[in-house]
Amino acid sequence: MAENLIEIFSKEDFRKWLKKNHLKETHVLVVLHKKHTGKNKTSAAELMKEAICFGWIDATVKRLDEDRWGINYRKRTKNSTWSYNTLRYAKELAEKGLMSREGMKWYEEGKKKLPHDHGIPKNPEVPEEMEKIFVKNKKAKENFENLAPSTRRTYLRWIFRAKLPETKSKRINEVVRKMSNGELKKITLLKVSS
Questions:
Q1: In this model, does residue 60 exceed pLDDT 90?
Q2: Residue 28 to residues 1, 12, 65, 86, 110: CA-CA distances in angstroms?
Q3: What's the pTM?
């Protein structure tokens, strides 16, 4: 896939590009300048909302050099997933009249699907059952608390995605086991049935 690249400085720049290209292009790397350059007048959150308006979504972030970074955006497809927050943003944008016809089409499709995060908060709390185990297992608690915040969130979201109470317990026990054994470097989550 050839890299389609645009450099922008404001959310208005991105909206203008999307308005012109959202139906004919399938992806784009939006190049942004890092904060220290003082060149950007926008944020990743603002750009994501502009993308939602046109039926697009942010995919990956890429470091380009000392002064620039990029965000890959792509056109939604029928297999695209929606998070609770993305649906909420789309609803707010629709209420403000900012959604394009294409954006509304994808938003209506997204409302029919279960959000991939099942309404799990971005920063979930440690489940009570896990806290009780941590009281008895200080090493596991300490290792868990010393994880990078993003790694902690990944584990907690995996636990909260369990559909059955037994699965949730199995996942909690697996995380505690990993923390007890000092398995902190790499997240390898077990395939535990829901």
A1: no
A2: 11, 16, 18, 19, 22
A3: 0.63
Whether residue 90 contacts residue 108, with contact meaning beta carbons closer than 8 Å, is answered with: no
Which one-letter amino acid corresponds to residue 17?
A: W
Q: Helices 44-53 & 101-111, crossing angle to 10 degrees?
A: 90
Written as one string, the DSSP assignment of the chain is -PPPEEE-SSHHHHHHHHHHHTTT-SEEEEEEE-GGGT-----HHHHHHHHHHTTEEEEEEEE-SSSEEEEEEEE--TT----HHHHHHHHHHHHTT---HHHHHHHHHHHTSPPTTTT--SSPPPPHHHHHHHHH-HHHHHHHHTS-HHHHHHHHHHHHT-SSHHHHHHHHHHHHHHHHTT--S---------
Q: What's the pLDDT score for residue 132?
A: 94
Interval 106-114 mean pLDDT? 89
Scored b (16 or more CB within 10 A) or e, 159-191 reads bbbbeeeeebbbbbebbbebbbeeeeeeeeeee
Q: How confident is the model at residue 122 (pLDDT cuts 50, 70, 90)?
A: low
Mean pLDDT of 148-171: 87
Residue 103 is which amino acid?
G
